[in-house]
Amino acid sequence: MSTVAATHEHHHPTGITRWLFTTNHKDIGTLYLWFAFIMFLLGGAMAMVIRAELFQPGMQIVDPHFFNQMTTMHGLIMVFGAVMPAFVGLANWQIPLMIGAPDMALPRMNNWSFWILPFAGTMLVSTLFMEGGGPAFGWTFYAPLSTTFAPASTDFFIFAVHLLGFSSIMGAINIIATILNMRAPGMTLMKMPLFVWTWLITAFLLIAVMPVLAGAVTMMLTDRNFGTSFFDAAGGGDPVLFQHVFWFFGHPEVYIMILPAFGVVSQIIPTFARKPLFGYASMVYATAAIAFLSFIVWAHHMFTVGMPVAGELYFMYATVMIAVPTAVKVFNWTATMWKGSMTFEAPMLWAIAFVFLFTIGGFTGLMLGVAPADFQYHDTYFVVAHFHYVLVTGAVFAIIAGVYYWLPKWTGNMYHEGLAKWHFWLSAISVNVLFFPMHFVGLAGMPRRIPDYSPMFAEFNMMASLGGFVFGASQLLFLYIIIKTIRGGEKATDEVWEGAEGLEWTVASPAPYHTFETPPQVK
Amino acid sequence: MAEDKKSAISHGKLVGKLTVVVFAMFGFGFALVPMYDMICDAFGLNGRFVEIEQGTFGAEQGQIKGQQLATRRDINRTITVQFTATLNQSMAWEFEPLTRSMELHPGEIKQVKYLAHNKTGKKVVAQAVPSVAPGQATKYFTKMECFCFDQQTFEPGETKEMQLVFVVDPDLPRNVNTITLGYTFFDTDRKAGLESDEKIIMAAAESSKAYLN
Ligand SMILES: [Cu+2]
């Protein structure tokens, strides 16, 4: 034991090499979170371009080709650059602390998983500056638009997706190994905090579907460069096949982005309601049920491709069934708050907003899941409203909630509660001004991914744009609050929150560089 | 120390298993390709090559089947048939149906004309490829005479009216009231790699599907 400790554990490189060569789960968690934040601001800046162009009908600021690149890159960056890495960052920081492990199971691979990301991200963004521009075919990159008709830079996009996939798969394997092999004595599976559970299931989803995405882009690559015809009709392939392969990945992907959010919220609500989580076991089973169902519903994204009625019925029923385990979760969160002694610090505010607004996104998801109704909603702004309620007020709100919740543990300082409340109320109001009107214009028939629109949609679009600008600006306040907290502030106690339970609150604040070198005993 | 080693080994085993899953799922992505074709063929989905498989593609076979269907005319039912035309990629052509839409009874033999104009200064051999939407109606749409049965040769600047004679099967499912017939025109030189006409037709049928959908 002593030799191992001497060789790698008491050696602290400083400066840039600390970050380049680090195998410490806390350092890597921090790197992931900063990378995600930078990508969030970049993807957000692209959203600002989109909303600025859509502020009024007619073409004003950017040309349509650039607009298409913005919608595409905004989606890709937010999904693969911001939301997914942010959750991996939270996992890196919290999972070892929550299960009483000294580090992740495979620390060197952990270093790799992170350091691939900046290269992949840079490659993806660099396509914007290449001849012919970057990807402009939507984040779903349907063939033949992404094969036959795509710019030359698409090959770099494909390589970037491969790298991002590698990173996620390695991260997922690491998380599974950590959770299954490194739990402290007495930490049985059914005692694990829900954040750990949701991440365990998410990690399995990742290793199941990221390889399928890798397969899809590989087929694109060979179609584009090596004369195959997977998706090229003129050679015997079928473009509709692309959609099947893509959504076989794509639907589980939406749960990859939301299950860890469920986990975060399931940690926060009990703390601030000062009650244990209601229905712990049902939460675990509901998560597993959602994950299972996510594999058999993919074609609800393709109701309009001309499926036979039997197929539409099957995918409709299977999709609507997901509402059952999801409702179990929403019920449990509500029941946890019921008669609790609640206080409303920033993490709780974000978590409650999550429950409300994610549920709205869930309801519109149900509407979209109804095949005959979907023919009206398909490819309209209604879809845009739906998935932004799920991903922004869902996933992103949960990430922000988690950051406020754990920031005192990470930095040792309390964040400024007053500023955090400003951040919350500005965001919570503006996000609804931004996305709620999109339901209306969508139902009225405004198509998504267009730079110009009928004047009849002008008022709601202007409203959405104004909401968007405020929402975007209020995230700069978030950045300021984080930096301010890192620099100083009221010292946090070890427990940080009065009602907090769990191993992570038994270590000092800020969490020391090495924790749980002797495993704690869980009763 | 002993414990450290033990945990390293068990990581190895678990990681090995998970890696197998990763590779298996990568393979599964590719396995979706033949699976998709098999499912489409088995259930006749997506109208894949239905006529070729039924053996009703071609003038002679079409005539025989069409005459049979015509004996079972169903005047109590009226169906709308719409006609569209698409050019493949960059062909410098005009290609359009002279009738956009018509109402008819199943079992009724009808004819429409398509107009094609070769605007290039070259002689072009073109193949029109039919496609029917919704896909489930494909096998109920029988072409008795069709310019799509053969390749069409166009002199530079030539304009042609081309005839289609068809009949809709009275067994057409009750929930289908509108059928859209689309043609895509392909320059046969474009894919020189494809030898047989049938292969071109099958390939192109897929592509026109994509346009329609
Ligand atoms: Cu889905």
From TrEMBL, chain A:
GO terms for biological process: electron transport coupled proton transport; oxidative phosphorylation; respiratory electron transport chain. It catalyses: 4 Fe(II)-[cytochrome c] + O2 + 8 H(+)(in) = 4 Fe(III)-[cytochrome c] + 2 H2O + 4 H(+)(out). Pathway: Energy metabolism; oxidative phosphorylation. The chain crosses the membrane at residues 31-52, 72-93, 114-137, 157-182, 194-221, 241-265, 277-301, 313-335, 347-367, 387-407, 419-440, 460-483. It is found in: Cell membrane; Membrane. Keywords: Cell membrane, Copper, Electron transport, Heme, Iron, Membrane, Metal-binding, Respiratory chain, Translocase, Transmembrane, Transmembrane helix, Transport. It is a multi-pass membrane protein. Its EC number is 7.1.1.9. InterPro entries: Cyt_c_oxase-like_su1_dom, Cyt_c_oxase-like_su1_sf, Cyt_C_Oxase_1, Cyt_c_Oxase_su1_BS, Cyt_c_oxase_su1_dom, Cyt_c_oxidase_su1_bac. Residues 19-523 form the Cytochrome oxidase subunit I profile domain. One of its GO terms (cellular component) is respiratory chain complex IV. One of its GO terms (molecular function) is heme binding. It is an enzyme of class 7 (translocase). Belongs to the heme-copper respiratory oxidase family. Cytochrome c oxidase is the component of the respiratory chain that catalyzes the reduction of oxygen to water. Subunits 1-3 form the functional core of the enzyme complex. CO I is the catalytic subunit of the enzyme. Electrons originating in cytochrome c are transferred via the copper A center of subunit 2 and heme A of subunit 1 to the bimetallic center formed by heme A3 and copper B. This is Cytochrome c oxidase subunit 1. It comes from Thiohalophilus thiocyanatoxydans.
From TrEMBL, chain B:
It is a single-pass type II membrane protein. Keywords: Copper, Membrane, Signal-anchor, Transmembrane, Transmembrane helix. The keyword Nucleotide-binding does not apply. Gene3D superfamilies: Ctag/Cox11. It comes from the Bacteria. InterPro entries: CtaG/Cox11_dom_sf, Cyt_c_oxidase_assmbl_CtaG. It holds the Pfam family CtaG_Cox11. One of its GO terms (molecular function) is copper ion binding. One of its GO terms (cellular component) is plasma membrane. Its main location: membrane. The keyword Transmembrane helix applies. Belongs to the COX11/CtaG family. This is Cytochrome c oxidase assembly protein CtaG. It comes from Thiohalophilus thiocyanatoxydans.
